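Notes from hallway chat w/ T.B., transcribed later so I don't forget. T.B. wanted the structure written out for a chain they're using in a teaching module, and asked if we could keep both sequence and structure tokens in one place. Agreed to drop them here.
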Amino acid sequence: MRPALAFLNGVLIERIISEAIDVLCKLGVELHNENVLSLLSDFGAQVDKSQQRVLFKPDLIEKSLRTAARPFKLFNVLGNETHFFVDNNVYFTPGSAAIHLLDYDSKEMRRPNTQDYMTYAKIVSQLDNIASQSTAFIPADVPDGISDSYRLFLSLLYCEKPVVTGTFTVDSFAVMRDFQVAVRGSVQSLKEKPLTIFSACPTSPLKWSDVTSQNVVDCALHGIPVEFIAMPLSGFMAPVSKVGTLVQHTAETLSGIVISQLASPGAPVLYGGSPAIFDLRYETTPMGAIETMMLDCGYNEIGKHLDIPTQAYISLSDAKLLDAQAGLESGIGAALAVLSGINNIAGPGMLNFENCQSLEKLVLDNEICGMTLQLAKGIEPKEDIPAMALFQELLAEGHLLIADHTRRYVHEEILFPGPVIDRANASRWRDEGAKTLVERAHAAVSDLVERYQPSRLADDVKNELIELMEREARRYGQDHLPKRQEDSV
């Protein structure tokens, strides 16, 4: 039996959805894109272009929810299925778009570069409990105009896993789409086997920018899945109550779903988000707060009620170093997310309010992910009922270390974590160097980089990606891409 967790009952979920629809139909959203406003108007929404405001209609929302309510799959660069977003299937992906990297040697947060990103991609390609990569942080050694496309370029070049990504500009979308078409071979093949998920973030309260709303439309037209990342802040840019924040999150997410489904009915979407409470004492948005995690689990239940696959930024920390707080917040978040059945769980590696990635934390979080995935399996009989034969053997042999039953089920029933997690006794721990968790995590990072095997993506496709990226860089005045410290990928 799979363990499960719930914060809302069916009556409350229906009421939250009803209130959100009422907000959309009576207050509407501010929307800064002429084409999207025209699209909504064409389908019957009440649009005031002079005020850049749209009022929705209940039937428009209901129709969009029906076409959006479907599972979908993701595939890696080789075309192999890796994800099926349905029911309570759960998958982990690193947190994304950090502007800093925690440097192991200096213990300081610094701006990352191309070599850092290559190291990250090599590491995440080997983490068994993290199913996809993300464009995790922003290299500072390329122009801002290509930072979005450059991250996706490096991800596709060095790691075979599908990518959670996004863009902060309209122009970047075209080349990011072209990267994916190059990998798949055709536009139709990309629609049949999606390679990425694009994040689309409305602005709280109840607003869509020109760029983000256009990205939603572009992704829908090309069959690229979108995860909606509404970010209401309880007590600041949203009601302080959890239910009030969930009403706002629902309204903002539903508005994005309508845009997506009007552009292309049936376009794949994730009902996601990154809401947070607002800590009035420090004027911060703590992602590791238990109330933030409760909001994530709550809107996940709303998404599942609507039969739409879900996503959340959870299992991350606001700590500034890889310390006890980092483990505490990430571990609780991962456990809650898995027990709630959030389909796409984003956060591993993240520190400092989603602003910093840590490679050492990423390998630790991989172990946390493994433990929570083991938790999700629950407890089931394994040829141990009736139990008499097992206990007869135990009494006769004095142990069951090499029993057939043990050998058959030991790796299914017991998770054996990697060397980042210390399970040795104290004397052995001292004999092996008395390493701290951070030291063990750094050793794991170094080992993964050493053991990395290049992506099996065809060389001609890699060369096409390089040509596309170089052409895009020249558009922004960079004649040469940053040097990568190896001759081949």
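Follow-up for T.B.: The mean pLDDT is 97. Might be a good example for the class.
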